[in-house]
Amino acid sequence: MVSIRGMETRHGGGHEQSSQEEKIFVSVRVRPLNEKEKARNESSDWECVNNTTIICKNNLTERSTYPSAYTFDRVYGSESNTRQVYEEAAKRVALSALNGINSSVFAYGQTSSGKTYTMSGITKYALSDIFEHINQQNEREFVLKFSAMEIYNECVRDLLGTDRTPLRLLDDPEKGTVVDKLTEVRLNSWVHLMELLAHCEAQRQIGETSMNEVSSRSHQIIRLTIESTPTEFSGIENGSTLTASVNFVDLAGSERASQTLSAGTRLKEGCHINRSLLTLGTVIRKLSKGRNSHVPYRDSKLTRILQNSLGGNARTAIICTLSPARVHLEQSRNTLLFAVCAKEVRTSAQVNVVMSEKAMVKQLKQEMARLQNELKNMSAANHSEAIVKEKELQIEKMEQEMEALARERDLARARLEEILRAAGVDQNLLPWTPSGQLSTATSWDMRSESDISDIVFHNRLRSQSSLGKYSYPEKDELQIPDEDPYFFDHISPKDFMDQYFSPDPIQGLEKTAQPIESIKKNSNDMESPQASVASVSYSRNPNEAHDSMESRKSSVTEDVSDSRTTGLKRSTSCSVIIEGDSSVSEKNAVAESKSDGDIKGLCRQDSQDSATSGDDKEMHQSERDMFVYDPNRTLQKETPKAIQAANNKSNSDEDWSLVFEKQRKKIIELWDECKIPLLHRTYFFLLITGGATTTILPQADTRSSRKWKGNEPREGDAGQETFRKYSATERDELFQKWGIDLESRNRRVQLSQLLWTKTDDIEHVKESAKIVGKLVGLVEPYNTPKEMLLSFSPKYETQSTLSSWFPMLGY
Ligand SMILES: Nc1ncnc2c1ncn2[C@@H]1O[C@H](COP(=O)(O)OP(=O)(O)OP(=O)(O)O)[C@@H](O)[C@H]1O
């Protein structure tokens, strides 16, 4: 990470954010008395004494213990109009999305207090302002996408789709909770937008209660996503894109069955509404006290979906609506109590910029030039040595950043070459010199500017229709949804691999480093089965294999804590080990033990190590449990027979192709069963070429074992080593900063284990999925591996033309 003019920038991912903590903007609006209330001679209990303070007149006469005055960012009496409420209490927040900041405006209050009345006006005013802004902007190009959903009786429904089946909520490591298969429509005009809004209005669940003839029986979320690119960079590779969504949330109102006189369906709806609002209230209350305690976002669909708007990466405005009549006094006080807590909640408004690699390199270069200039001026002005040194360090950092980009580019190229090789495409068609002939220099300065344009192969997939004779499919042809994060610029191949294939990029590797360290210390000839490690290196030159970038580590550890109580045990890891032929220059390492006694010895040493390590002492128990090693289990006992048999044969090149075919069939069956996405399959097969020396079976590999015993650090160790320098607290802080909570750390490690162990047998995978579900205590436990894997990778169910390139992927 480097800091560029106060912004945090992640290279390679091309995703830039600058964040600022701020409080939720809270306002209160009191509606006028309605005809019925007037007929009953009700009077209003509330008065706005200025534009920020509202008082309860009743308190003064009653000598109530409740507060009589409440102060908020803005308060509006019955004479106010929605335009004014929008201008002062919602506009700034709603229009933030134009600047790349996610935002939410929502209305909260009891039934019939005026939420829909207020929100429908605000939504239209905001959308109109957004359109007007876009029309006036010539310097940027905009893409608008519209979606709408409702939560009715705790089911999420698509208001634009034709299918009324409930939608699932999924956890996306980048975006947080996402609604699976929610229709997103690209807007083409204002009229189009109005049509969609009218459609949503017609679709929404509305029912008559004694308090409101048109009572909303669901929570409604209307979402507009705005992407904008500077006009000069509208070509895909050069630019940076601002992207953010604005949510307009019209909540259903809390209600008393006695007041609404509801029964049957209405009563059931009311129960769901009240329950989810109760959770929303709890979430707000907990957040108002700081983020240290557990916040039960997952207790309702509403709070899961709104998680980002409540204390997350968004700018938020809440308008609390009150019914003025005395009969509603208690409900109004509750609403104000909610508003008081909401006032204390902080969110971090972030600018979301997705940058292409080329744009990042350009920006880094400009920044370096600026710094170098500053440095020159400083030297001339005889500035202190310390300041000059600091500038020099900054420049050095920039250089490292650019080199890292160059390395990622090379890695991406290596992968693309692999894809082409697997597809039997002529390597000479590549726009760069194929592997083995590249210059070893990686600095951008040594390369021409045009060289930068082909950094990331997924950029190519999106933007280039042909390379020589070979046709790349356009994105549409690939049927990859627009929001697909894996094909966006902001995720680099390395990040992708780390996130979706290996254990948690840091935590997982770090934990698995323990046995490796023990092995280094304790054994010259053997390695522990719990430390099965597959490592693949890419290199331009076969001789450079050991020095080239490490692309992946995977470790399969054993026996999760729950197995003690459930009686379930993970079977021995099936080490997925890849020994590429030398021209492919993939190297691997297999860890395998020789005897039980040795395993126990290593295990003891392991636990001694962790007992003496300060960091490990501070490690969360749940994390530690995940890596508990069961000394009673042996590799031989639990390795499936078929694999053992194949293993015995695997030394023979003659049998290999048969074994490989068998294994491949099995894996494909398993993938089908688990609906493993095409992209995962692709990467997997990039690593397993099917060459004579490739094996997916557990076996000792003397050459790669040697790698673990050498003293020289390998490139892949660098991140791990660096990370190990941090204390547990510092690591936790880092994770927090990266938005990776403990649950997702655990889940990612477990998922990767599942992905790797899947090559054993389907029963084992099913068992693992159950254990994983229990282990991470998911609110919606996954009953089958398919369910679990789908929740992690929902977007690749569609068939794509890519599959025709790779028949071996089994699609
Ligand atoms: N500020 C206002 N000025 C005039 N009329 C209003 C105002 N606010 C609400 N109303 C009227 O009050 C009635 C109830 O309003 P609305 O349907 O917006 O309430 P709600 O809070 O959304 O209720 P529910 O939770 O039951 O859906 C409507 O007839 C609406 O027109």
TrEMBL record:
Alphabetized CDD domains for the sequence: KISc_CENP_E (cd01374)
Pfam families linked to this entry: DUF3490 (PF11995), Kinesin (PF00225)
GO (cellular component) term, any one: phragmoplast
Single annotated GO MF: microtubule motor activity
Listed Basic and acidic residues bias regions: 7-22, 543-556, 593-607
InterPro entries cross-referenced by the UniProt entry: Kinesin-like_fam, Kinesin_motor_CS, Kinesin_motor_dom, Kinesin_motor_dom_sf, NACK_C, P-loop_NTPase
Domain Kinesin motor: start-end pairs: 23-345
Bias kind Polar residues: ranges: 525-542
Lineage top rank: taxon: Eukaryota
UniProt main location, coarse: cytoplasm
The keyword ATP-binding belongs to this UniProt entry's keyword annotation: yes
SMART domains, per the entry: KISc
Region listing for Disordered, in residue ranges: 1-22, 521-570, 582-622
Binding site for ATP: 109-116
Subcellular location: Cytoplasm, Cytoskeleton, Phragmoplast
Alphabetically ordered keywords of this record: ATP-binding, Coiled coil, Cytoplasm, Cytoskeleton, Microtubule, Motor protein, Nucleotide-binding
Coiled-coil annotated residue ranges, if any: 354-422
Family label: Belongs to the TRAFAC class myosin-kinesin ATPase superfamily. Kinesin family. KIN-7 subfamily.
Cited PANTHER family: CENTROMERE PROTEIN E (PTHR47968), KINESIN MOTOR DOMAIN-CONTAINING PROTEIN-RELATED (PTHR47968:SF11)
Protein name as it appears in the record: Kinesin-like protein
Species for this entry: Centaurea solstitialis (yellow star-thistle)
Lineage: Eukaryota, Viridiplantae, Streptophyta, Embryophyta, Tracheophyta
